[in-house]
Amino acid sequence: MIRKEYLMTPGPTPIPYQVSLAQAEPMIHHRTPAYTEIFVRMVEGLKKVLLTSNHVLTFAASGTGAMEGAVANCFSPGDRVLVAVGGKFGQRFAEIAKVYKLSVELYEYPWDEAADPEVIAALLKDKPDIKGVFVTHSETSTGVVNDVKCIGEVVRDTPAILVVDSISGAGALELRTDEWGVDVLVTGSQKALMTPPGLAAAAVSAKAWELIEAADSPAYYFCFKKARKKYDSQSPETPYTPAIGLVKAMSEAVELLLAEGLEEAWERHRVLALCTRDAVRAMGLELFPKALQGAFAVTAVKAPQGISGGDVVRHMNRVHGVIIAGGQDRLKGKIFRIGHVGYYNFFDMVVALSALEMTLTALGHRLELGSGLAAAESRYMELTGSARP
Amino acid sequence: MIRKEYLMTPGPTPIPYQVSLAQAEPMIHHRTPAYTEIFVRMVEGLKKVLLTSNHVLTFAASGTGAMEGAVANCFSPGDRVLVAVGGKFGQRFAEIAKVYKLSVELYEYPWDEAADPEVIAALLKDKPDIKGVFVTHSETSTGVVNDVKCIGEVVRDTPAILVVDSISGAGALELRTDEWGVDVLVTGSQKALMTPPGLAAAAVSAKAWELIEAADSPAYYFCFKKARKKYDSQSPETPYTPAIGLVKAMSEAVELLLAEGLEEAWERHRVLALCTRDAVRAMGLELFPKALQGAFAVTAVKAPQGISGGDVVRHMNRVHGVIIAGGQDRLKGKIFRIGHVGYYNFFDMVVALSALEMTLTALGHRLELGSGLAAAESRYMELTGSARP
């Protein structure tokens, strides 16, 4: 059977052909009016996607680069920060903070649960010298989504800034950067922004700029002040050579996303998540997260009794060409993850679920073929207008 | 929901990205060694696809152009020909033959049945001055596939040549041009050859060349003799400007098809057809053709009681972005057709069948959601190795 690949991981994700074509256009130079126009359109579009009027700084880097930028620009060695860790990407914030010799307070919560805003409030009260709170919006490794709005309310009236990694959230999940009081919002190009990996962005609030003025950790490539200054110049640009093709691509992708409508995109991700959830349950599987509120970016599923999550991932790939993700770190072998953040619609889920039904059957998990798909179709028709003639 | 389009018509059909990229390469001139190499590779590859050692002539035209070429080159006004008509494309051969003022004997057989080789044998015996027999291999309008091998045995020992339209057959269905005694085999680029429309080909036997020498209908653009002469020259070429981008594309597509393997491609189409068939039956629908032997290019389905085939097609397109075909001519409104000839695999069928389950439900046909998909998956696992862990 002809092998077609279906990329269903939570990043990288499929690229709309309009975006691929934009990236394939002839190379242009980045100190030209033509580039400036595209670059500014992208940045101003990103502001609309992130619902912020703050500066949005972009870097030729993966999302981790902007995470490092947040740490390096806002804090000085010895500064006390609180890092909420409930998965691999929470851990990453803690690792970066340690590399920059910050004094890290870990708030570790179970990987199948969300961070508790009240715990964060109590910790902030207990240690009023905490200068920053690091939270993962969508924890890609577990599928759990944190209540950033609520955490924002808790952090807002303290001296601390709120730093949020929304790499797999922005564009897919409700996210109101300014309204929710997110001081540094970090994201990347390769998930809901429907662009190849290689571009990172950070939206930085006035409260964060105050810290940045005072901070003295080393920051050169990811220097926020320099990036802001270059964007505010007569002809907006970046300090160093930008990833020109990716900027063209993301400029196009952001326009597509805004043409769909931000709330419509959020609703699409909600629908896909609910359909996928119903389907895997109908196949007799259990979801990994206990906290399912807003968990619409990734569906993390416990591997069935006696079957390794890795075997599910390998069979899906080898036999059906459907690329899903396994568990990371302590979840290795125990779960598998179906991504639906990005350029996906219902039929992408149908393909993944059909392959999953056949994969599980082949691996010895008993289920009725078609049962997952029936549940997905039924929920889809209920949630959308497609039950009408 | 983001609209993605799923082209599931029996032509045009989806293009592999390698083929799209080949077509998008910088334009080259057609009287250059670089072009000649690509052109020859395409033609020699086509011979392997058609299982012929005859000349394969190519034209910048849709398949109908090569059908006209077959008539114009091989016959003279007044020549008696037998045209087997069991659908819209059989009719087309008859129309062309009449335009060229041939004396047309129509053998009309029911649209849901295949042509009967014995009837053709009897007609040839009855009218021994018949100079050509025109048969549609895969009748795209009905889904029926004729037994060209058997018809070839009947025509072989008569003075008549056998002209076969395999536009939606070649590359998808078993077809052995030389072994089966097909004298003029006509095909087009936009179906199993996985290329955009605009290229037609004709494979011409020695028996046909004898007729061509004697014929005096007008043929200029589609002149077979001129095309053969140009191909046989020092630097093989075409008499007029070729569709250079399409030649690049088809050269790539033919290589992909041969890399898959011809028999493997035939088997793939058989598997897709059998899965689709089982699925639509499980949805409580009836197939249109009574003759199902080898009918693996298109699945033609009767519209359910009280629902127009056109409504099924429109809902599939408007609500789900799945483009299937309706009925043509006398079958308008009565059937709909799912194409699986070309660059398709099982999950393309899964998408079409999922959309069909939801469409039929929305239009009031009662079925159990998931039932068609379950039947397809079950048959797929049985026919392929995918039931193994």
Across the major sheet of chain A, the strand order is: 2-10-9-8-5-3-4
Low-confidence runs of at least 5 consecutive residues of chain A: none
CATH superfamily of the largest domain in chain A: Type I PLP-dependent aspartate aminotransferase-like (Major domain)
Oligomeric state of this protein = homodimer
Structure write-up:
The structure is a homodimer of 389-residue chains. Chain A is α/β, with parallel strands linked by helices and 389 residues long. Chain A has 2 domains: 6-12 and 261-387, Aspartate Aminotransferase, domain 1 (Alpha-Beta Complex), CATH 3.90.1150; 17-259, Type I PLP-dependent aspartate aminotransferase-like (Major domain) (Aspartate Aminotransferase, domain 2). Chain A is 43% helix and 15% strand. Chain A has helices at 17-24, 33-50, 63-74, 88-99, 117-126, 148-156, 206-214, 224-231, 244-260, 262-282, 309-320, 346-362, 371-383; strands spanning 6-7, 55-60, 80-85, 103-108, 132-136, 138-139, 144-145, 161-165, 184-188, 199-204, 298-302, 322-323, 325-326, 335-339. Chain A has a 7-stranded mixed beta sheet, with helices on both faces. A 3-stranded antiparallel beta sheet of chain A has the order 11-14-13, covered by helices on one side. In chain A, a hairpin with an 8-residue loop joins strand 13 and strand 14. In chain A, helix 1 (17-24) packs antiparallel against helix 9 and helix 11 packs across helix 12 (346-362). The radius of gyration of chain A is 21 Å and the shape is globular. The mean pLDDT of chain A is 97. Chains A and B meet through helix 11, helix 12 and helix 13 of A and helix 11, helix 12 and helix 13 of B.
